[in-house]
Structures are given as structure tokens and as C-alpha cells.
Specification:
single chain; binds zinc ion; 1 helix; three-stranded antiparallel β-sheet; five-stranded mixed β-barrel
Length: 133
């Protein structure tokens, strides 16, 4: 299996990193104003309310920006790979930074993406691949 640097599970971020266990991506959302935010934070950065909790999202989005990484940061990490900024479908400027599972010569800004999880023990890393649908 590909070596990955795994996130440390903190109270605020654990829901995000373990969400994929049931196949759904969850993003923190404010119950007061409805705004999604990522990464998770103890209060809403829009209305400053504290009624924030993880909510299931579609797992769909598009590639807003990307870099191609040629540096093997970890032994066992195949290069090159695509590291992308994914703008989720739920909200403008709701970004997730993660690996994009795509061929280097096929990756392009604006490509439709769907989430795909890679399990490492308790952690389900959310990554994205092209949404063919
Ligand atoms: Zn709010």
C-alpha cells in the first residue's frame, strides 16, 4: 500500500479524517447561518456561532488548482502525483487540499471530481478522482 503521512486525530478534525468509514465525506457546517467551513474550527468563521458540526456532503466538486509533485517525500510514495485544491459543490470557495488520483497528462483545472477514500487503520484519507458521470 502507498505510504502516506497520516493526520493526527484531534477532537475537531477526527470527524473529517474518519468520515469515510461509511463512505460519506463530512464537512463542518454552522447550524446558525448554514455556512460550511474547512478545515474545522471551534466556531463559525462567518457568524461566530458555536453550533458547528460535521455534516454529510455530496463528495462532488471540481479541481480549482493543482500542483504536480515529483518529490518522493516518503519511502514508498510513488511519484509523480497530483496535489489539488478541490472546490466542493456545496459552496463557493469551500476548498479541500488533497491528492487527486489522476494521470498527470489528464489533469486539468475545472475537471469534475468525486471523493474516494483510502483507508489507513482508523483514518480514511479523502482523495478525489475524476467524476466520469
Ligand atoms: Zn455561522
Amino acid at each position: 500500500m502507498t505510504q502516506r503521512k497520516l493526520p493526527k486525530l484531534e477532537p475537531e478534525t477526527a470527524a473529517y479524517w474518519t468520515s469515510g468509514a461509511d463512505g460519506a465525506l463530512r464537512i463542518q457546517r454552522c447550524a446558525d447561518c448554514g455556512t460550511y467551513q474547512h478545515p474545522p474550527f471551534p466556531h463559525c468563521s462567518t457568524c461566530h456561532g458555536e453550533s458547528v458540526s460535521p455534516e454529510v456532503v455530496s463528495g462532488k466538486g471540481h479541481l480549482a488548482s493543482f500542483t504536480i509533485n515529483y518529490e518522493p517525500w516518503l519511502p514508498g510514495l510513488p511519484v509523480p502525483f497530483v496535489f489539488g485544491v478541490v472546490e466542493l459543490a456545496e459552496q463557493v470557495q469551500l476548498y479541500v487540499f488533497t491528492n487527486v488520483l489522476a494521470e498527470i497528462d489528464a489533469v486539468r483545472v475545472g475537471m469534475p471530481l468525486t471523493v474516494q477514500f483510502e483507508q489507513h487503520g482508523d483514518v480514511w484519507l479523502p482523495m478525489f478522482r475524476e467524476d466520469a458521470a
